[in-house]
Amino acid sequence: MVSTSQQILKQYFGYDRFRPLQEAVIGAVLAKRDAVVLMPTGGGKSVCYQVPALVMEGMCVVVSPLIALMKDQVEALRVNGVEASFLNSSQNSSQQRAIEEKCRRGQVKLLYISPEKLLSEGFFPFLHGLRLNLFAIDEAHCISAWGHDFRPEYTQLKTLKTHFSDVPVIALTATADKLTRRDIVAQLHLREPEVFVSSFDRANLSLTVLPGNERAGQIIRFLRGSADAAGIIYCLSRKGTETLAERLRKEGFVAMCYHAGMGAEERSQVQEAFLRDDIRIICATVAFGMGIDKSNIRWVIHYNLPKNIEGYYQEIGRAGRDGLKAETFLFYTLADVLKWRDMMDQENSERKDLQLAKLERMQQYAEANTCRRRILLSYFSEDLPRDCGNCDVCRNPRVAFDGTVLAQKALSAVVRLGEGVPLNVLIDVLRGSRNQFILNHGYDKIKTYGAGSDLRTEEWREYLTQLVNVGVLEVAYDQHHALKKGILGDEVLFRQRKVMLVKPENTVKMKPAEKVKTAREDVYDELFERLKQRR
């Protein structure tokens, strides 16, 4: 079977060998096993279901929320000689009937459909009349309320296993933390699935956080030295994309905006122009980028703070998919945090709490004084054993100290508290607080009570945040934000793994935007000058 898979890979996709994990995933699918696949943007997720679909008899149903891109995906497969079609709301009834008839005749190997079409009345009986070999659920994080792009219609996909118990299901996503992964398995009712997690380390991406003052001017200075390089500028609002694109055009750049408020034809024209390199600069909301097959994007800029790490990681992952060096910049101000908080206040209570917690993690990333790549990878439960050397913090490091004993105190307290209390309670225990909550729960009786009384609350808050960022601790969002041992917890607690921490700049908490600005403004100006010279 492996040789057949390799022949398919060469014949239809032109590759001589598989990327890491692809062959193992394909083997599981060919063995009729359910699977969950986590690969970063550009990691080759599509091959994981397209190749086995072509190896096996029958048809693969690909469920995707990206209706606007289905036509392009199918056309790309057809160019390669693959019998592929799609069904979604963009087609009239006669067009859909014609495609359904092709499916009945066995003339379709890959059928791309929207979740709404899959779950529409009468569609399951239609599928029961076909020979199916696989269900592929793309953007699988959409099924989880814990995910960063929850779509309620995806939750009904749990009925697939009820109606098609013998057909394997492969769920694929580029961004899902540990909690979201577990929820994907539960929501889809997958049966003992094999879980494949590719490395999330995109070492070719340079990570830089910049103060948000005069961001348009900073972008213009950067672009003047990057005239031939294609890139995306992500903005918080539709109006923001239009305003920035107009400003850039006035400065002589060929720039267009892209957002969901534009007509479908206009969006398609902008997208095609960007793919052809007729336009090098796109100012867009997060509506732009999913499914875009463009390997030579050299930079991605976030004009505003993203609302969570998952979305941020997915968006910067669109740069440097050819493996060559690429730059990513994030502008950060407290004003963006407040805008997100205002919008999140409109959510129901459960979603609101989760979104605010994830926004806080994003804010911590932007304010961090430790290697940013280690923070990103730790968020996805991956350990980077050393600092990356390719982020602004590593290029301009703060003085670090050996915080192993401090980390062990925190871990010991977390374990003795049953991994069941949030950060504020842990700090009270470590500092030996006598407040009524601590006394009522008997937390003053544990061995590590008061073990950190030499540090102030603000210092403990900073250090615990750093311990979360590097994976020594983790936050259980589904358990009232309780702190638990992270992926490195046991190594630090029992195997003397060293933990380096950075002292807070001030004992008084500064406003995030001011803190970033005063600490790094001169460094960033110098960085932009270096980047301009390099280009």
Notable traits:
6-stranded parallel beta sheet, 3 domains, Arc Repressor Mutant, subunit A, Rossmann fold, alpha/beta, 15% strand, 7-stranded parallel beta sheet, globular, 23 helices, disordered C terminus, 535 residues
Plain-language structure description:
The protein is an alpha/beta fold and 535 residues long. The protein folds into 3 domains: 2-197, Rossmann fold (3-Layer(aba) Sandwich), CATH 3.40.50; 205-376, Rossmann fold; 400-502, Winged helix-like DNA-binding domain superfamily/Winged helix DNA-binding domain (Arc Repressor Mutant, subunit A). Helices cover 44% and strands 15% of the residues. It contains 23 helices and 17 strands. The strands form 4 sheets. The protein has a 7-stranded parallel sheet with strand order 3-4-2-5-6-1-7, sandwiched between helices. Strands 8-13-12-9-11-10 form a 6-stranded parallel sheet, sandwiched between helices. Strands 14-17 form a two-stranded antiparallel sheet. Strand 15 (473-476) and strand 16 (482-485) form a beta hairpin. The radius of gyration is 25 Å and the shape is globular.
Number of strands: 17
Question: Whole-Å distance between the termini?
Answer: 47 Å
* Rg estimate, integer Å: 25 Å
Distinct helical segment count: 23
* Share in helix: 40-55%
> Could you report the average pLDDT, rounded to the nearest whole number?
87
Amount of beta strand: 5-15%
**Overall 3D form:** globular
Structural class: alpha/beta
Q: Let me know the largest β-sheet.
A: 7 strands, parallel
**Strand order, largest beta sheet:** 3-4-2-5-6-1-7
Integer count of domains = 3
Q: Examine the coordinates and then state which fold CATH places here, giving the name of the CATH topology of the largest domain.
A: Rossmann fold
Uncertain runs are 506-535
| The CATH C-level class name of the largest domain | Alpha Beta
| CATH-level-4 superfamily name of the largest domain | P-loop containing nucleotide triphosphate hydrolases
